Amino acid sequence: MARLRDRVSETAESRGELVLYKLDRPTEVTCARCAGRSTTRWIAVLADDWTRLWCKACFLAMPASNRAQPG
Ligand SMILES: [Zn+2]
């Protein structure tokens, strides 16, 4: 698998530990949350885990005030 981390052109937004990135070109990804497959420049990564990518729709579904709960 290509090293997506090296192809980030822009860090767009973050919500808690979830960060939305813009890639240098459209890439086919499978979302770890909704299992949807899409070709997109937008990917989200939770807790810097690049093996489990989220789509932009799932990123936007997260509340902006999302924060990790203790315990
Ligand atoms: Zn998704």
Written account of the structure:
The protein has 71 residues and is mostly beta strands. The chain has one domain (4-61). It is built from one helix and four strands. Strands 1-2-3-4 form a four-stranded antiparallel sheet. Strand 1 (8-15) and strand 2 form a beta hairpin. It is globular and about 30 Å long. The relative contact order is 0.24. The model has no long low-confidence stretch (mean pLDDT 90). The structure holds zinc ion. The site of zinc ion has 8 residues, from helix 1. Zinc ion (ZN) is lined by residues 31, 33-34, 36, 54-55, 57-58.
Give me the secondary-structure topology.
Elements: E1 8-15, E2 18-30, E3 37-46, E4 53-54, H1 56-61
The structure holds zinc ion.
Sequence of secondary-structure elements: EEEEH
Strand proportion: over 45%
Principal-axes geometry comes out as globular
Question: Terminal Cα separation, in Å?
Answer: 34 Å
**What radius of gyration results from the CA coordinates?**
12 Å
Helix/strand class: mainly beta
Main sheet: strands, sense, barrel: 4 strands, antiparallel
Query: How many β-strand runs?
Result: 4
Residue-averaged pLDDT: 90
> Which residue ranges are poorly predicted, with pLDDT under 50 across at least 5 consecutive positions?
none
Which ions, cofactors or small ligands are bound in this entry? zinc ion
How many domains, as an integer? 1
- Residues in helix, %: under 10%
In spatial order, strands of the major sheet run 1-2-3-4
Tally of contiguous helical segments: 1
Identify the quaternary structure here: single chain
